[in-house]
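Appendix C reproduces, verbatim, an entry submitted by the partner laboratory led by Prof. M.T., so that reviewers can inspect both the input and the predicted structure.
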Amino acid sequence: MDRWVGKVAIVTGASAGIGAATLKALAGAGMIAVGFARRIERVERLKEELTDEAARQRIHAVRCDVTREENILAAFRLVEGRFGGVDVLINNAGIARDSVELLTANNTAELREVIDTNLLGTVLCSREAFQSMKRRSITDGHIVHINSVLGHTVPPNMTFNIYPATKYGVTALTETMRHELRIAKTNIKVTSISPGLVSTESVPDSMKTDGTPILEPEDIADAVLYVLGTPPRVQVHELMIRPAGEMLC
């Protein structure tokens, strides 16, 4: 991680869960860690959880709803104005509306919200990050998508609305971006990290205490540090992380 010290990282969906853990990990590793979130007051409170005063000062909050393009453009302009631009993007923002099934009547708003957050928001943030890197002739940037095991398989006994479809889309767009970056002759990397069940706000408390195999957000933050810390010659394309003891589907 030494080469990233002092560099700028953006984490979307940074107010809780994986995003919050990743933001703290990046700040602790010496990066300027900018958290995009709708609830920026929660990002500001993350600083209180760090014992390292220097790391606290490296965390910054920017209000951004990734379902709104004008929010994304404004947020990236702010980062460019304050910090010069972005070197690392962690696309973490994501939602699931698993209480509403695909074939439920009048579910268009829920479907569109998941698509706009998980898929379109990921593409638009990646586009703006790449353009920032390109303007500054950055050759070793990194874009990380927090994907899901549901971007590779769909369990037969549960309903996840359109969530798996969007995560399959993230799997495909990771490969598409890799080819675009290769054809453009950059050394910018793109990585998909696909966790299994993670203990976040969207997981019922009962599943966190009934012995269900589950990961912690810090496990995924550690994986982010790992892929960022690989040498320039190494491309970690897909990293799948499952909790020990999970029944594979």
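The two ends are 34 Å apart (CA to CA). Additional entries are available on request from the coordinating office.
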